[in-house]
Write a structure and sequence with these properties.
Blueprint (H helix, E strand, L loop, with lengths): L1 H59 L1 E4 L11 E4 L11 H19 L6 H27 L6 H30 L5 E5 L4 E5 L6 H14 L7 E5 L1
Parallel strand pairs: 4-5
Antiparallel strand pairs: 1-2, 3-4
Helix pairs in contact: 2-3, 3-4, 4-5
């Protein structure tokens, strides 16, 4: 009697285990299929999305101009248009305009009489440095722009190197002037002129002669175009 009950119980347990295993397997297969379908749908969605974006990019680069002639013929034309947001005008006269605008801002700073003597030289040097950095950045935009032709790129490179050479000369002249006994100095060089501002209560003829001698030795600017002031 005991064995019979035990066998029946064993059979029932085994049956339940089998049912649970079967259910688990079915759930696994269903989930696997669902994952595969979802993955497939997602891949298809991504491919469609990519195709749509590529088509849009191509359409953005194309302008279709439809013209109907008087005789009724379609004279439509298709024009390829590049994204002009990155185009930088690099004509030589525009390079000159960039430099001229920067020089004008620097001259305005150097002629500012509102700054105190203690703040003038520090502020002037900062302003000159910032203006020069902005000019170099403009040249770099032209040099690194793929839409710029080779000659324009070369012109921008030459302008940049010339400006860097000018900045070095300014620092050298400032150092030489301070070596002559002046407490501080700001030097600004353009193609036509040199502006020198020194920290001094007054400038004697001897002081002016010293400054002129330094500037003429370091630059090709004539004495008539060397402007000296004291602060």
């Amino acid at each position: 009697m005991f064995n019979m009950k035990f066998d029946k119980r064993k059979i029932i347990i085994l049956s339940l285990v089998f049912v649970l295993i079967s259910i688990s397997y079915l759930n696994y297969m269903i989930n696997k299929q669902s994952i595969l379908e979802t993955s497939s749908e997602f891949t298809e969605y991504e491919e469609n999305k990519l195709s749509t974006m590529e088509a849009k990019e191509k359409s953005d680069d194309i302008i279709i101009q439809q013209n109907i002639s008087e005789d009724g013929k379609d004279t439509s034309s298709i024009t390829m248009v590049a994204d002009d947001s990155s185009i930088v005008d690099s004509k030589e006269n525009n390079l000159s305009d960039i430099v001229a605008a920067s020089n004008s801002n620097i001259e305005e700073t150097l002629l500012n009489d509102e700054m105190s003597k203690s703040a003038y030289f520090l502020q002037a040097k900062i302003d000159v440095e910032m203006e020069r950095e902005k000019t170099i950045e403009r040249f770099d935009e032209i040099i690194n722009n793929k839409m710029v032709d080779e000659q324009s790129r070369k012109n921008a490179v030459q302008r940049k190197m010339s400006l860097i050479d000018t900045m070095n000369k300014e620092k050298i002249i400032e150092s030489l002037i301070k070596g002559k006994g002046f407490e501080d100095a700001v030097v600004f060089i353009t193609n036509e002129s040199v502006y020198v501002t020194v920290l001094s209560e007054k400038l004697s003829n001897v002081d002016v002669a010293k400054i002129l001698d330094i500037v003429t030795r370091e630059t090709d600017v004539s004495i008539d175009n060397i402007k000296i002031q004291n602060k």
